[in-house]
Amino acid sequence: MKHLKHFVFDLIGVLLISASPLLGWLPGPGGIPLFLAGLGFLAVHHKWARDAIKYVRKNGIKLSEQIFRKHPTLEAIYDLLTLALLAGGIYLITIYTKNLTLTIAILFIFTGLTLFFGNRQRLEKFSKALFKKFK
Predict the structure, then answer these.
(1) Of the candidates 119, 21, 33, 9, which has an alpha carbon nearest to the alpha carbon of residue 69?
(2) SS3 content of the chain, % helix, strand, coil (to 5)
(3) How confident is the model over 109-134, as pLDDT tens digits?
(4) Phi first, then psi: what are they for 123, rounded to 5°?
(5) C-alpha distances in angstroms, 44 versus 10, 34, 41, 68?
(6) Do residues 43 and 134 make contact, with C-beta atoms less than 8 angstroms apart?
(7) Which residues 6+ apart lie within 8 Å of 38 measured at CB?
């Protein structure tokens, strides 16, 4: 039974990582969350996957710190842009049903969420809570 669980976790991890490039063209984060989820499944039984998650977490936070610098005006601009993109995305989804418009709406929503989590070090706080286990 233990070997079956190990095999299933590895299989799911490999499938998610394999699917990530196929979904990379989607608006928003695309295949990145699938890739990280696949690494998460593989990290249950493999040290190299845990090390890869630590590397991504460390360097992702560095990139986030460069983009979302601590400056009150810049933070306020990001928050306003977040609200505008989320409102625009919700408006487009509810009003229009055409595929192009839906795609743009989803792009607005994911961009807004990216700005939301990046601004004010929310991503760092979220990732610390999420990856507390891998320290």
Answers:
(1) 119
(2) 80, 0, 20
(3) 877 877 777 777 776 777 777 666 55
(4) -65, -40
(5) 9, 16, 6, 32
(6) yes
(7) 12, 13, 14, 15, 16, 17, 18, 20
**Neighbour-count burial for 104-134, b at 16+ CB within 10 Å, e otherwise:** bbbbbbbbbbbbbbbbebebbeebeeebeee
The whole-angstrom separation of Cα 114 and Cα 120 is 12
CB 36 within 8 A of CB 13: no
pLDDT, one tens digit per residue, over 36-55 is 888 888 888 889 988 988 88
Task: Using alpha carbons, select from 2, 123, 4, 131 the residue that is nearest to residue 65.
Answer: 123
